Amino acid sequence: MKVPEAFAYTIPDIFTDSEAAPLLCAGAIGYRSLRLTNIKDGHSLGLTGFGASAHLVLKMARHKLPHSKVFVFARSEKEQEFARELGAVWAGATEERSPKKLDAIIDTTPVWKPIVEALINLKSGGRLVINAIRKEEIDKESLMRLDYPAHLWLEKEIKSVANVARRDIKEFLALAADIPIKPQFQEFALEEANQALLELKERKIRGVKVLRIH
Asked: Would residue 83 count as lying in a domain?
């Protein structure tokens, strides 16, 4: 296979193919999302949704922002437990209130409810970064619950992540090798792709699912 040189990246030797795969997608966009929060070490960070990208963001945050506390909001108790294993100081359900208001929150979900819930947990002047290519229509009515004083007042910000730049991937691969960030992953053969998708639908998620093409 041929690709333009500008879009080919050297994979650090420390990573296997299966470890490198999620770094080029979930990891790179997670890195960009963390950068767009503009938070400094010591500021509090929230992650709503705890799948492929968020678990890598948590690893990054603990390295780059060692004095920052990370709070995780996730639907499944298994995801909440996984977040605590990786160093989250608190993990609860999507609609729960965090023990304190947060400086920034990154949303990694494909739906709307977590956005509405996250805005309540932001400090005044806090920033919500939406790390998603698209949002589903299934729960769009959640937006009708937006209450200006509770969700948006006091200079809160919402910023979306559009694309991953080449700079993001180069910087993140170097950072991931330096830490090092070893993604948690489950590997499936290509012919098992439907099983992997079914497990995602059923929220059987622990890290990343990787398809291997032989």
From this structure: yes
Q: What b/e string do you get for 22-56 counting C-beta neighbours within 10 Å, with b at 16 or more?
A: bbeebbbbbbbbbbbbebeeebbbbbbbbbbbbbb
Q: Digits of tens for pLDDT over the chain (214 positions)?
A: 789 998 899 999 999 999 999 999 889 999 999 999 999 999 999 999 998 899 999 999 999 999 999 999 998 899 999 999 999 999 999 999 999 999 999 999 999 999 999 999 999 999 999 998 889 999 999 999 999 999 999 999 999 998 888 999 999 999 999 999 888 888 999 999 999 888 887 877 777 889 988 7
Is residue 53 in some structural domain?
A: yes
**pTM to 2 decimal places:** 0.89
**CATH number of the domain within which 110 lies:** 3.40.50.720
